[in-house]
Amino acid sequence: MLEIGSIEEINQLKPAGKYKLREPPLAESSITAFMAGGLDLIIVPGVAFTPGCHRLGHGKGYYDSYTTIHDQWTNQKDLPRTKLIGLGLDVQLVENIPTEGHDRILDAVIINGHVYRP
Protein backbone atom coordinates (compact mmCIF):
# COMPACT_ATOMS: atom_id res chain seq x y z
CA MET A 1 0.00 0.00 0.00
CA LEU A 2 1.29 3.42 -0.88
CA GLU A 3 0.57 6.27 1.50
CA ILE A 4 -0.25 9.46 -0.42
CA GLY A 5 -0.72 12.74 1.40
CA SER A 6 -1.85 14.94 -1.49
CA ILE A 7 -2.72 15.02 -5.18
CA GLU A 8 0.62 16.73 -5.79
CA GLU A 9 2.40 13.60 -4.56
CA ILE A 10 0.47 11.54 -7.11
CA ASN A 11 1.34 13.99 -9.89
CA GLN A 12 5.04 13.65 -9.04
CA LEU A 13 5.02 9.88 -9.63
CA LYS A 14 6.47 8.81 -12.98
CA PRO A 15 4.55 6.58 -15.42
CA ALA A 16 6.12 3.12 -15.46
CA GLY A 17 5.42 -0.50 -16.29
CA LYS A 18 3.50 -2.13 -19.11
CA TYR A 19 0.47 0.17 -18.78
CA LYS A 20 2.43 3.37 -18.06
CA LEU A 21 0.66 3.98 -14.75
CA ARG A 22 2.07 6.36 -12.18
CA GLU A 23 4.01 4.10 -9.83
CA PRO A 24 6.44 4.71 -6.97
CA PRO A 25 10.03 3.53 -7.46
CA LEU A 26 10.51 -0.08 -6.32
CA ALA A 27 13.09 0.99 -3.74
CA GLU A 28 10.66 3.43 -2.12
CA SER A 29 9.41 2.23 1.23
CA SER A 30 5.75 1.49 1.60
CA ILE A 31 3.47 0.54 4.45
CA THR A 32 0.88 -2.17 4.74
CA ALA A 33 -2.69 -1.56 5.74
CA PHE A 34 -1.93 -3.42 8.94
CA MET A 35 0.85 -0.97 9.85
CA ALA A 36 -1.34 2.01 8.97
CA GLY A 37 -4.22 1.08 11.27
CA GLY A 38 -6.53 -0.46 8.69
CA LEU A 39 -8.33 0.75 5.61
CA ASP A 40 -11.57 2.70 5.33
CA LEU A 41 -12.42 1.31 1.90
CA ILE A 42 -11.09 -0.80 -0.92
CA ILE A 43 -12.04 -0.11 -4.53
CA VAL A 44 -12.49 -3.57 -5.98
CA PRO A 45 -12.14 -4.26 -9.71
CA GLY A 46 -14.32 -6.81 -11.42
CA VAL A 47 -15.23 -8.41 -14.72
CA ALA A 48 -18.94 -8.03 -13.91
CA PHE A 49 -21.22 -6.76 -11.14
CA THR A 50 -24.89 -7.26 -10.29
CA PRO A 51 -27.37 -4.66 -8.98
CA GLY A 52 -27.30 -6.69 -5.74
CA CYS A 53 -23.56 -5.94 -5.42
CA HIS A 54 -22.16 -9.36 -6.31
CA ARG A 55 -18.86 -9.32 -8.14
CA LEU A 56 -17.21 -11.58 -10.68
CA GLY A 57 -13.44 -11.28 -10.50
CA HIS A 58 -10.73 -12.84 -12.60
CA GLY A 59 -10.88 -16.13 -10.69
CA LYS A 60 -7.64 -15.86 -8.74
CA GLY A 61 -9.30 -15.06 -5.39
CA TYR A 62 -6.85 -12.26 -4.53
CA TYR A 63 -9.40 -9.74 -3.26
CA ASP A 64 -11.46 -12.38 -1.44
CA SER A 65 -8.33 -13.65 0.35
CA TYR A 66 -7.01 -10.19 1.19
CA THR A 67 -10.32 -8.85 2.49
CA THR A 68 -10.84 -11.97 4.63
CA ILE A 69 -7.41 -11.56 6.26
CA HIS A 70 -7.95 -7.81 6.67
CA ASP A 71 -11.41 -8.38 8.23
CA GLN A 72 -9.92 -10.82 10.76
CA TRP A 73 -7.24 -8.28 11.65
CA THR A 74 -9.72 -5.39 12.03
CA ASN A 75 -11.95 -7.58 14.23
CA GLN A 76 -8.99 -8.35 16.51
CA LYS A 77 -8.17 -4.63 16.74
CA ASP A 78 -11.85 -3.69 17.21
CA LEU A 79 -11.74 -1.47 14.12
CA PRO A 80 -14.67 -0.85 11.76
CA ARG A 81 -15.12 -3.24 8.84
CA THR A 82 -13.53 -2.04 5.61
CA LYS A 83 -16.06 -1.01 2.94
CA LEU A 84 -15.75 -2.69 -0.46
CA ILE A 85 -16.80 -0.61 -3.46
CA GLY A 86 -16.96 -1.90 -7.03
CA LEU A 87 -16.51 0.49 -9.96
CA GLY A 88 -17.60 -0.42 -13.45
CA LEU A 89 -19.04 0.47 -16.83
CA ASP A 90 -22.57 -0.14 -18.16
CA VAL A 91 -21.43 -3.28 -20.00
CA GLN A 92 -20.23 -4.79 -16.71
CA LEU A 93 -23.67 -4.69 -15.07
CA VAL A 94 -25.43 -8.05 -15.39
CA GLU A 95 -28.43 -9.59 -13.64
CA ASN A 96 -26.73 -12.76 -12.40
CA ILE A 97 -23.23 -14.10 -11.94
CA PRO A 98 -22.02 -17.37 -10.44
CA THR A 99 -21.10 -16.98 -6.77
CA GLU A 100 -19.57 -19.20 -4.12
CA GLY A 101 -19.83 -19.19 -0.34
CA HIS A 102 -16.58 -17.28 0.17
CA ASP A 103 -17.58 -14.45 -2.21
CA ARG A 104 -18.23 -11.25 -0.29
CA ILE A 105 -21.12 -9.01 -1.30
CA LEU A 106 -19.80 -5.51 -1.90
CA ASP A 107 -21.06 -2.56 0.12
CA ALA A 108 -21.82 -0.67 -3.09
CA VAL A 109 -21.30 -0.81 -6.84
CA ILE A 110 -20.95 2.43 -8.79
CA ILE A 111 -21.64 2.30 -12.52
CA ASN A 112 -21.82 5.51 -14.57
CA GLY A 113 -22.76 7.56 -11.53
CA HIS A 114 -25.51 5.21 -10.32
CA VAL A 115 -24.94 3.66 -6.90
CA TYR A 116 -26.25 0.15 -6.27
CA ARG A 117 -26.47 -1.20 -2.72
CA PRO A 118 -27.27 -4.72 -1.52
UniProtKB/TrEMBL annotation:
Its EC number is 6.3.3.2. GO terms for biological process: folic acid-containing compound biosynthetic process; tetrahydrofolate interconversion. It holds the Pfam family 5-FTHF_cyc-lig. Gene3D superfamilies: NagB/RpiA/CoA transferase-like. The keyword Ribonucleoprotein does not apply. InterPro entries: FTHF_cligase, FTHF_cligase-like_sf, NagB/RpiA_transferase-like. One of its GO terms (cellular component) is mitochondrion. The keyword Repeat does not apply. SUPFAM superfamilies: NagB/RpiA/CoA transferase-like. GO terms for molecular function: 5-formyltetrahydrofolate cyclo-ligase activity; ATP binding. Keywords: ATP-binding, Ligase, Nucleotide-binding. It catalyses: (6S)-5-formyl-5,6,7,8-tetrahydrofolate + ATP = (6R)-5,10-methenyltetrahydrofolate + ADP + phosphate. Belongs to the 5-formyltetrahydrofolate cyclo-ligase family. This is 5-formyltetrahydrofolate cyclo-ligase. It comes from Sugiyamaella lignohabitans. The gene is FAU1.
